[in-house]
TrEMBL record:
InterPro entries: DUF4407
Upper classification of the organism: Bacteria, Pseudomonadati, Bacteroidota, Flavobacteriia, Flavobacteriales
Name of the protein in its database record: Archaellum component FlaC
Keyword entries, A-Z: Membrane, Transmembrane, Transmembrane helix
Pfam families: DUF4407
Membrane-crossing residue ranges in chain numbering: 28-50, 56-74, 95-113, 264-283
Length: 366
């Protein structure tokens, strides 16, 4: 049962193979098994790849089976169309296009499995790339807000500087009227005289102006700080909005790119393994000697070809013979007086009909 299934997978003519030896049947069963398991591996690989794309198990299984059947059909077609020739060079020349197709299939099959085998290493590379993208994204968004935030902070600094300058001025006036009262500066007279009162009034006026300036600048600073907080909130919103895009940066193309950053040798050997599996049926049929099945298949095909060639030749001879006979018949009729007289009479009648018709037409116009 299993042997017949693998023979079916090989694409061999079962009616011819049944008349061959058991060894010949086993050879084609082995070729069919290689075709089947290659398609099975292709189906699994496609399932892994589509799981990464759709993140849906049912869809991955469904399309993976479809892809496996497609690869199975291609491999079966490649193997079944290989024919043994009289010369090894002719056999190799007919194999070259099929080898190129097998190379493409091997690449397509091996890549998803490489992504699954090296999944942990790829995740580490993607994590590093995501961190770099996150920092770059934050810097890029910050460049949209930093100039305005810096301008607002500069305004706040100016307002605070005004208060500090006024505070320094008030402190100076305070020291002035205190030292005047102590008699250590100014008039150098101890006590609170007219000069002291003048300096004290000047200090009190400056202190009142300072209090007023603090209130005004405090309100302005509060407004500016509110704007800064709004800008920072908008910045955080933009970062939070774009971060999921970076977090989802793990599609199949990103993983293939990340795989390319890893050492190439392990991936290359996996590719060689699948290339060997994919080309095994081709090389096994190419290198195997011409067997009973090949001779019987060639005999059947050549018999059909001979029959077709014979039919074509017979039809061509019939056409050629009919042409020769017709030429001879028409030549003999051209030399007969009776046929000449009949043809002459009919021609005269036809010319008379034409003349009468022309006359009637002209008479109608006149």
């Amino acid at each position: 049962m299993l042997k017949q299934f693998f023979i079916l997978c090989s694409g061999a003519d079962q009616s011819i193979l049944k008349s061959c030896s058991n060894g010949e049947q086993n050879k084609y069963a082995g070729i069919g098994a290689t075709v089947f398991f290659t398609a099975l591996m292709a189906s699994i690989a496609a399932g892994f790849a589509l799981q990464m794309v759709f993140n849906n198990l049912v869809s991955a299984i469904f399309f993976g089976i479809i892809w496996g059947l497609l690869i199975f059909n291609l491999d079966r077609f490649i193997v079944s169309t290989l024919k043994k020739r009289q010369s090894f060079l002719n056999e190799f020349l007919q194999v070259i296009p099929r080898l190129l197709l097998a190379l493409i299939i091997a690449i397509v099959i091996s890549k998803p499995l490489e992504l699954k085998i090296f999944e942990k290493e790829i995740n580490q590379v993607l994590l590093t790339q995501k961190n770099a993208l996150t920092l770059a994204n934050q810097d890029q968004i910050a460049n949209q807000f930093n100039p305005e935030i810096e301008a607002l902070n500069s305004e706040i600094g100016i307002l605070k500087s005004e208060v500090d300058t006024k505070s320094a001025e008030v402190n100076t006036l305070y020291n002035t009227y205190i030292t005047e009262a102590e008699g250590t500066s100014g008039t150098n007279k101890l006590g609170k005289g007219p000069v002291y009162k003048e300096k004290r009034d000047k200090h009190d006026a400056a202190l009142a102006a300072l209090q007023d300036l603090k209130i005004k600048n405090s309100d302005k600073i509060t407004t500016l700080e509110t704007k800064i907080e709004t800008l920072k909130s908008t910045y955080n919103t933009q970062v939070a909005k774009t971060q999921p895009i970076i977090d989802n940066f793990d599609g199949i193309m990103a993983r293939i790119t990340a795989l390319g950053t890893l050492p190439w040798l392990p991936s290359f050997f996996i590719f060689l393994l699948f290339l060997a599996i994919e080309t095994a049926p081709i090389f096994s049929k190419l290198l195997s000697p011409k067997g009973a099945y090949d001779y019987k298949l060639e005999n059947e095909e050549s018999a059909i070809k001979s029959w077709v060639d014979q039919q074509i030749y017979e039809r061509e001879r019939i056409v050629s013979t009919n042409a020769t006979v017709n030429d001879k018949v028409y030549t003999d009729m051209a030399n007969e007086d009776e046929f000449y007289k009949f043809k002459k009479q009919k021609t005269r009648e036809l010319m008379q009909f034409q003349a009468d018709a022309f006359y009637k037409k002209q008479k109608t116009f006149l």
